[in-house]
């Protein structure tokens, strides 16, 4: 984005805004019951996400940058993610689906007017480089991924998208050695390579790491199945105390959406049952499961610094080229509703030769979500700051459901260690002896 002139940048923003809205409307192209119902206590009704992205756009683009008076001030509280927990949202007087669509399209029309007249070269950090538009674009794509997780939980058939994915390749050497040394973690943002980077990705800082080994590919279903069949879920040796408690209390014995039928494991994917494909990266595991598997395998989860260093210091592991929808480097943007088999993207390898860092599955890391040294909150505390601490684990790299404009090697995602409805898997690492 950084190199486009002001006009090219505005055109690109307008195109991306149109594309993300098309995506949100496609995921909510369902009958009202489907949209207002709560499919899981963990998730909002889909109609909440839909109006919330419009409300967020109104707050940031129309009010903050455009100086426009609130369109419907009486609904703001309903779409404030901090006011009511997700489980209480269905009982709120939310806009119904037709009203929600009308509201967000009204907002969007005015947003395009603001885009037309705003000076994207102004020094103000919300305007500069189109930051505020990057903020709302990424936000809507993140909610689209959340909506996909809700749809998967609903077990309603119809959203399986069986796009073509390249075949897998076995790894000649399943681990990659990363030598000891200093690397740059995070990004400068602003005029740096990632002008739309979030506050939590900044500032860029130098960090020394001892040498380590990291898996070339994410852990596959086939590998994970060995842990399951070896009694991994019945052996407290592999689990942290809180993880073991979670397993026992919930009777967990396999990843979410898996069921056993005799010797064969099946999974439900968007309402359709199919045998668990052994070559595909495992997904729908909690941080506790990832951590237990790693211990069983004689390894550990990588820290987020180790994960990021393995990317080789570029915007994407393969370089600066935008992943777009060409699909040569990574499985992103819901091309297919599943991760690609391990080894599917040799061209997407990092300079160290680590593959599938971007796309396929979010990867749990060992790290708590904490600010980088020199962190400065921008533009608001409720995006990152209120989540810092020893409560959320960091995930990296995006999933098959993540849009290319909402992921890069510095991007940080986070969730509670018990969460499994997100499209998350992992890879392992180990320290050098
Ligand atoms: C970064 C995915 C953890 O969904 O809770 C959406 C993104 N922040 N609206 C989330 C977000 C505000 C956030 N995650
Ligand atoms: Fe949000």
TrEMBL record:
Enzyme Commission identifier(s): 1.14.99.50
Domain Sulfatase-modifying factor enzyme-like: 174-430
Residues binding gamma-L-glutamyl-L-cysteine, per UniProt: 86-89, 415, 419
Pathway listed: Amino-acid biosynthesis; ergothioneine biosynthesis
Positions contributing to Fe cation binding: 52, 139, 143
Keyword field: Iron, Metal-binding, Monooxygenase, Oxidoreductase
Cofactor(s) essential for the protein: Fe(2+)
Reaction catalysed by this enzyme: gamma-L-glutamyl-L-cysteine + hercynine + O2 = gamma-L-glutamyl-hercynylcysteine S-oxide + H2O
Signal peptide positions (record): none
SUPFAM superfamilies assigned: C-type lectin-like, DinB/YfiT-like putative metalloenzymes
Superkingdom: Bacteria
Keyword Iron on entry: yes
Domain DinB-like: 17-147
Enzyme class label: oxidoreductase
Recorded family membership: Belongs to the EgtB family.
PANTHER family reported in the protein's UniProt record: HERCYNINE OXYGENASE, SULFATASE MODIFYING FACTOR 1, 2
Function of the protein: Catalyzes the oxidative sulfurization of hercynine (N-alpha,N-alpha,N-alpha-trimethyl-L-histidine) into hercynyl-gamma-L-glutamyl-L-cysteine sulfoxide, a step in the biosynthesis pathway of ergothioneine.
Name used for this protein in its record: Hercynine oxygenase
């Amino acid at each position: 984005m950084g190199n486009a002139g002001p006009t090219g940048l505005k055109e690109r923003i307008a195109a991306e805004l149109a594309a993300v809205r098309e995506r949100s409307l496609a995921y909510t192209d369902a009958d009202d019951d489907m949209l207002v119902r709560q499919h899981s206590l963990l998730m909002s009704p889909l109609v909440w996400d839909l109006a919330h992205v419009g409300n967020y756009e109104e707050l940031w683009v129309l009010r903050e940058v455009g100086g426009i008076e609130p369109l419907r001030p009486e609904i703001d509280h309903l779409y404030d993610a901090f006011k009511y927990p997700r489980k209480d949202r269905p009982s709120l007087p939310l806009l119904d689906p037709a009203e929600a669509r009308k509201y967000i399209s009204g907002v969007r029309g005015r947003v395009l007017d603001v885009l037309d007249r705003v000076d994207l070269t102004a020094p103000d950090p919300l305007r500069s480089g189109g930051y505020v538009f990057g903020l709302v674009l990424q936000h809507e794509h993140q909610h689209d991924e959340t909506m996909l997780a809700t749809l998967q939980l609903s077990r309603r058939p119809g959203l399986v998208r069986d796009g073509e994915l390249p075949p897998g390749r076995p790894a000649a050497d399943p681990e990659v050695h990363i030598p000891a040394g200093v690397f740059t973690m995070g990004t400068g943002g602003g005029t740096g390579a990632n002008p739309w980077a979030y506050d939590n990705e900044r500032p860029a800082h130098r960090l020394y790491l001892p040498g380590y080994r990291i898996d070339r590919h994410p852990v596959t279903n086939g590998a994970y199945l060995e842990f399951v069949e070896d009694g991994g879920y019945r052996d407290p040796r592999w689990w942290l105390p809180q993880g073991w408690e979670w397993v026992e209390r919930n009777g967990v014995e396999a990843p979410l959406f898996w069921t056993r039928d005799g010797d064969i494991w099946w999974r439900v994917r968007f309402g359709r049952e199919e045998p668990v494909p052994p070559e595909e990266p495992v997904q729908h595991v909690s941080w506790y499961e990832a951590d237990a598997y790693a211990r069983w395998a004689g390894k550990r989860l990588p820290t987020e610094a180790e994960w990021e260093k393995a990317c080789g210091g570029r915007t994407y592991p393969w370089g600066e080229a935008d992943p777009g929808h060409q699909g040569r480097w990574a499985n992103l943007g819901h091309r297919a509703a599943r991760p690609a088999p391990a080894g599917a993207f040799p061209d997407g390898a990092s300079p160290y030769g680590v593959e599938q860092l971007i796309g396929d599955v979010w990867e749990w890391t060992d790290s708590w979500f904490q600010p980088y040294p020199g962190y400065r909150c921008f533009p608001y505390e409720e995006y990152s700051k209120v989540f810092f601490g020893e409560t959320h684990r960091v995930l990296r790299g995006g999933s098959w459901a993540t849009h290319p404009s909402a992921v890069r090697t510095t991007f940080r995602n986070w969730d509670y260690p018990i969460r499994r409805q997100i499209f998350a898997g992992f890879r392992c690492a180990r320290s050098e002896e």
